Amino acid sequence: xxxxxxxxxxxxxxxxxxxxxxxxxxxxxxxxxxxxxxxxxxxxxxxxxxxxxxxxxxxxxxxxxxxxxxxxxxxxxxxxxxxxxxxxxxxxxxxxxxxxxxxxxxxxx
Length: 109
Ligand SMILES: [Cu+2]
Known about the structure:
Blueprint: H1 2-22, E1 26-32, E2 35-37, E3 40-43, E4 48-53, E5 62-66, E6 69-72, E7 81-85, E8 90-96, E9 103-108
Parallel strand pairs: 1-4, 3-9
Antiparallel strand pairs: 1-2, 4-7, 5-6, 5-8, 8-9
Copper (II) ion (CU) binds near residues 98 and 102.
């Protein structure tokens, strides 16, 4: 009986470890007043960054043209979220295709 309980506890611990190894974290980057906030974010490889348009009625358009990790969210209306999973390590300059001064640096390690 006691051994069974220990075995069950060990199984539960193993399951938790497996869950932790695969669980991805989520970071949020807001776009407000034509500025990304925060302007720099660091995540782990495989994490997701959610880009949120908090800018009234302005359109945004988040993209990276870095050949190591390129993506394009398309036009993003106000209030809309666009999740991007960063699968490649490195430091990436993420910009808005509509507002050239907007820049957020995403470090993936
Ligand atoms: Cu923009």
